[in-house]
Amino acid sequence: MGYKILKIIADMIIPVFIRLEVINYPELPKDSGALIAVNHIHALDPILISYVLYPTWIHHIAKEEIFRFPFLAPMLNWLGVIPVNRQRPGVNSIKRTIELFSGNKYVCIFPQGTRRKKEFGNIKKGAARLALIGNVPIYPAAITGLEKVRFWGLFKRPKVRIIFGKPISVEKRENTKEEIDILTNELHKSMLDLYYKICY
């Protein structure tokens, strides 16, 4: 019920700030979990991903620093956000993510590790590692335009595009350093291709 109320509120607020276009809605698996990998350009990226995939509940991996804000922590915990130390990802965050996969849940990660507004840059190996450990497909995605949002510029409404790509299977792949590198490169190429398709 609470999640639905958040969606109703978002329906009223989001169109005020942006014009949203979603390309290729993903068909997420019903019999397994999945990892959604998106580039990171704005603090609102997680909210928008959850918004466009509603009513599917998306768990997000986020830097642990934001849990230090007393007014944010309860909401983040209720939403099932997974805190992670970006310098030293701990066992607890990995364990929690794998538990979600085991329950056929969906997790969103931003493989770049930080926000990048001007250049796509490289991605880290965490997404590949989690997918291989959890034996779940990766759904690459890209987002553009959200970096143009200004809260003091109401009704300017920049065009924001989100595109989802074909899932990357990890079946018959082993959790080895070599395979992690291969999968990371494959994911990076897929995300970059999607990014350039909507980057105009």
UniProtKB/TrEMBL annotation:
Record key words, sorted: Acyltransferase, Transferase
Pfam families the UniProt entry points to: Acyltransferase (PF01553)
SMART domains: PlsC
CDD domains (alphabetical): LPLAT_AGPAT-like
Protein name as catalogued: Phospholipid/glycerol acyltransferase domain-containing protein
Protein source organism: Anoxybacter fermentans
Alphabetized GO MF terms: 1-acylglycerol-3-phosphate O-acyltransferase activity
Residue stretches making up the Phospholipid/glycerol acyltransferase domain: 34-146
Alphabetized SUPFAM superfamilies for the sequence: Glycerol-3-phosphate (1)-acyltransferase
GO biological process: phosphatidic acid biosynthetic process
Domain of life of the source: Bacteria
Record flagged with keyword Transferase: yes
